Protein: Glycoside hydrolase family 1 protein
Organism: Mixta hanseatica
Amino acid sequence: MSKVTIDIPPDFILGAAASAWQTEGWHGKKAGQDSYLDAWYQQDRHVWHNGYGPAVATDFINRYREDVALMKACGLTHYRTSINWSRFLLDYETAQVDEEYASYYDSLLDEMAANGIEPMLCLEHYELPAILLEKYGGWGAKKVVDLFVRYAEQVFARYAHRVKRWFVFNEPIVVQTRVYLDALRWPGQQSTATWMQWNHHKNLATARVVALFRAGGWAGTIGTILNPEVTWPRSSAPHDRKAAEMYDLFYNRVFLDPAIKGEYPPALLQLLAQHQIAWQYSEEDLALIAAHRVDEVGLNLYYPHRVKAPSRAWHADTPFHPAYYYEPFELPGRRMNPSRGWEIEPRIVADIARRMRDEYGNFPWFIAENGMGIENEARFRDADGEIQDDYRIAFIAEHLYQALLARQAGSNCQGYMLWAFTDNVSPMNAFKNRYGLIEIDLEHQRQRRMKKSAHWFRQLRVSRQLTL
Ligand code: BGP
């Protein structure tokens, strides 16, 4: 392909993302402040990477000043992270704030403001307090929705005058899918009803926090961050298309529709009833979801999900799982990131952009995460010690290009955020795969170094043009 250049609109976000748990470390964490992820990591040493994990993470809590300077050096307009619910409060029932942790956020926001970086804050990025899982069964209990709203009240009271863009959840579908639908992760127990109950309570919590934010009269916006898996059928044959529709319904529309349209897809409700999935919801819940929709959605886009019609019949005596309706399909010859096992296909951006425009009323959205995790990245270090991550530059350029084209074609795409600003701890495998513009050198006191992609990203900001 010959070189093309495309302008980056002046208001287009050029940012990078992270989360509290994946960067901050446990420094200053008090007894009883474990998140669900902390509890899991404490009992399962195999998810740590060579002994490195969330205990120190990237040590952001101690090194944020250095990191904010690096955000500026990378040309970031925005930085997205979360506030860790499990650490922000000392008592989840009374919502008593942990002053020490809260004042660290005051300083972080001061530092970002002084360096011209816009904060985007998310209230939950997998940081459910472990005790709420133990005591109430986590998001399975409506009580936890109330406690989350109380936590949000405290967060908004403290920071909503200075943070303009808020998000309720990051990828609210993930934890319960791994834990209850697929039973792959601690405390693993297959129950489609529990899975749907968590989905519903997170949708309800989204509506209630949106209502709370609006009632506060704050100047900013309130959105949520979802991970729609762009789903493509193996063929255009009706049975394959049906498989893709079903996947989309159970994994994407279950959150997209309530957040944007204020309702569950009727087809989903019907299927859940047909399979006798015993989840609880009230008319009042549905009215709240209808009345309080988000202002924008951040979308985490990594790879396409390809499916085909299932080849085996489901046994009625096994618990219902949405995989009753689809099977994964591996496109022969697809381009892969071998470290993560994910296909690389930038047209997912065009696909979701079209959908946001045509199916969701040109709803405002942005890429909240997109990126490439690479194992053993130190092998790409040059003689001066800089990681030459040309593969990451190509990956970003190809996806960003699609976002810019979509914007030109009238999709309400607000920007692009890379996952991740620095290398960080993955819930899946700690530091195994590196995603950052900034290297965290674990063997050398977590020294920070800009990778080649960091310099390239800065150029995007300076020139406001992308060439590929
Ligand atoms: C997203 C999460 C991030 C991050 C990223 C990379 O789903 O929001 O928190 O971890 O995926 O994935 P992984 O860490 O599993 O490689």
The first strand starts at residue 5 and ends at 7. The longest helix spans residues 192-215.
